[in-house]
From TrEMBL:
Coiled coil: none
Full protein name: Gcv operon activator
InterPro entries, per database record: LysR-type_TF_proteobact-type, LysR_HTH_N, LysR_subst-bd, WH-like_DNA-bd_sf, WH_DNA-bd_sf
Source species of the chain: Roseibium alexandrii
SUPFAM superfamilies the UniProt entry points to: Periplasmic binding protein-like II, Winged helix' DNA-binding domain
Key words of the record: DNA-binding, Transcription, Transcription regulation
Family note: Belongs to the LysR transcriptional regulatory family.
Domain HTH lysR-type, chain residue ranges per copy: 5-62
PANTHER family, A to Z: GLYCINE CLEAVAGE SYSTEM TRANSCRIPTIONAL ACTIVATOR, HTH-TYPE TRANSCRIPTIONAL REGULATOR
Domain of life: Bacteria
One of the GO biological process terms: DNA-templated transcription
Length: 299
């Protein structure tokens, strides 16, 4: 007898656990309740032990059931990864997928892709974004643009550029602050609240640069740097500008420094090339172009 149970029985088993019972599982599968119960009995008979403790309400997994559920879930994840890798094999060899934060994509990467396409018209760059935190090198992702200390072990790490943090605001607001003697007391401070503590906050900036807030307790709070940057561009307050976020806006004169010292954090921006990339040679072309561009802009 084949030791592996039929896949349809494992699917029913997983759905019963996920839905919290046979009745909801039957609704999810669009079959009768007896059909689900029968499938579970067949699975238990095949394995030779009970998977559910039916003395409780609702029924709970036995130890054997927990072991089987973990195996089924792990197998599903591996299948998803395998299918993603297969789809990547079918994609064009000149397509590279880059994962990065929303702010980095909006204000640094996307504005430079036009120049990249002029130099490499045969390469297509797909951009995957997350609100913040460190982008993962999941299946199908060739490059992750990350801010940190560069100690990741899931790929080849390339330094892109060192960061620079400096308070910035719209030119009109900067003029008003200057007329009022340079005090921040009447200006809103724009805060970005993220879980990753490497992105420093206003209190951390003041502490690390030995500055005082000059009594300003007012503030606008956002959950990502795209919203915060738009607020600063609209003249709503002063934000902590990062090279990767507001550097281009400062270069264009859309935002200006607020006569407070710049801070250089110990972390930097890196391009991490996945060791699982199916298009490693093409991805390397993208990484080298981005490194060269960032280096040229630093000079």
């Amino acid at each position: 007898m084949d030791r592996l149970p039929p896949p349809r029985l494992l699917r029913v088993f997983e759905i019963v656990d996920r839905m919290g019972g046979v009745k909801r599982a039957a609704q999810e599968l669009n079959v009768s309740l007896p059909a689900v119960s029968q499938a579970l009995r067949h699975l238990e008979n095949h394995i030779g032990t009970s998977l559910f403790d039916r003395s409780t309400r609702p029924a709970s997994l036995t130890e054997a059931g927990q072991i089987l559920l973990k195996a089924v879930q792990d197998n599903r994840e591996r299948l998803v990864e395998a299918l993603t890798d297969i789809q990547a094999l079918e994609s064009a060899a000149n397509t590279v997928t880059v994962a990065c934060t929303m702010g980095f994509a909006t204000y640094w990467l996307m504005p430079r892709l036009e120049a990249f396409y002029r130099d490499h018209p045969d390469i297509v760059v797909n951009v995957q974004t997350i609100p913040h935190e460190v982008p993962a090198l999941g299946p199908g992702t060739d490059i992750a643009m990350r801010y940190g200390d560069g100690s990741w072990t899931d790929g080849t790490v390339h330094l892109l550029f060192e960061e620079r943090v400096e308070p910035v605001c719209a030119p009109g607001l900067a003029a008003r602050i200057s007329e009022e003697g340079g005090s921040l007391a009447s200006a809103f401070l724009i805060h970005v609240e993220v879980a990753d503590k490497r992105w420093i906050s206003w209190p951390q900036y003041f502490f690390r640069t030995s500055q005082k807030a000059n009594g300003s307790a007012k503030g606008l709070r956002f959950s990502n740097y795209v919203q915060a940057t738009q607020a600063a561009l609209s003249g709503h307050g002063i934000m902590l500008g990062w090279r990767s976020i507001t550097g281009d806006q400062v270069a264009k004169g859309l935002l200006v420094p607020v006569s407070l010292p710049a801070y250089r954090p110990p972390d930097a921006y890196y391009a991490v090339l996945s060791g699982r990339s199916k298009n490693a040679e093409t991805a390397d072309v993208v990484v080298n172009w981005l490194k060269h561009t960032a280096h040229t802009e630093t000079l």
